[in-house]
Amino acid sequence: RRVIGASSGNNEWKRGECECVRANACECVRARGLERRRARADQKKAQIAGMAACDDARVSCIHGRMSTNASTTSTTISTFHPGLFDGSTVAITGGGTGIGLVTAKRFAELGANVSICGRRADVLADAKRAIEEAARAAGFKRDVVVASADVKKPDELAAWRDQTLAKFGGLDVLVCNAGANFLAPAASISPNGFATVVGTVLLGTWNTIHAWYPHLSERAPTSKNGASIVMNAATNGYTASPLMAHSGAGKAGMINLTQTLAVEWAPSRIRVNSIAPGPVDTEGANARLWSDPEVRARVTKTVPLARMGTSEDCAGCIVFLCTPAASFITGTVVTVDGGNFLKPMPALLG
Ligand code: NAD
Fold it and tell me: For residues 124 and 146, is the Cβ–Cβ distance under 8 A?
């Protein structure tokens, strides 16, 4: 048999373009199908091999594509579907550093439009580049919105919201991540110091949610997956919080707010959840809370999983809470602390 065009070796063959006995089941058509099946099988094999290599190398791996992440001490293999957030928009407060920045990158890699706010223009500019690069590496060309906005200032949050909506047209996910903290015995925390921390952690979260609620409540009832709000609380909102009375009070308020808003806003298809991290290795927390190596070692020792958390640990949980897989989860606080806050009878365990 002579196949016309076979020498081009491309996908241009069409039924009947070859001179064969039975035009409708000609070999060129069969050959094309076989070629495609082989290519798909090879692709799958390469993906599985990539993931296994990734696991061995203990590096972060997104959809089988390897990427090194020096700050990651645990293996992370994304289980999220590529492009899961393509067409969605995510806004994150305090998205220029630490957990907020890593969360922004993870959403961008999954195809989301991302908007972040913070207070320092230079930090935000660096973050914008890093998030856009993360998106590009995953195959998405994304323009990240950054805005200088202090969560204590409602007018600045309103300007950030308007800038985001002008660019992307709508919001699907809001992550209230900005936080402040410092170590001090309760008796020496001034009213001003207390107001600054609670004003950022709790009131700042309230200001942020309040700025976005009118838009979310209008959009979520008819959008594909409704809307999702995730707050970054902390385990010191469950327990006593020695040397961080202000932070503990603020985080406890966030946990209660999570439950209240989840109930009030469920009819609008707005889900409201929190994560409660334990000790997490970020530059900000390292400087504020455990700059002394001895303190850091003591803190690590109290974690049953025997390590500090990473921003990746927290980001993965935040992303999960915003996926359709979590569509029946609202009003929940997910603890991300390696078992730290449970402290199971330490005296018996030695
Ligand atoms: P971080 O310092 O990198 O993050 C805090 C971010 O909030 C920074 O980008 C900062 O610029 C921003 N921010 C602070 N005040 C702001 C304000 N008034 N307006 C706007 N942005 C403001 O530290 P991180 O460890 O990534 O913390 C992120 C969140 O995680 C915080 O809410 C923190 O309380 C929470 N958290 C952290 C840990 C931990 O151990 N690292 C544990 C539990 C909870």
Answer: yes
Label residue 70 exposed, middle or buried (CB < 10 Å: 0-12, 13-18, 19+): exposed
Bridge partner residues of 296 (DSSP): none
pLDDT digits (tens, 9 = 90+) for 207-258: 999 999 999 999 999 999 999 999 999 999 999 999 999 999 999 999 999 9
Minimal-distance CA residue to ligand 1 atom 32: 179
Taking only the tens place, the pLDDT of each residue in 276-313 is 999 999 999 999 999 999 999 999 999 999 999 999 99
Kindly list the protein residues whose Cβ atom lies closer than 6 A to any atom of ligand 1.
93-94, 96-100, 118-119, 150-152, 177-181, 200, 204, 232, 234, 277, 279-280, 282, 284-285
H or E, element range at 150: none
- Give the count of beta carbons closer than 10 Å to the beta carbon of residue 195: 14
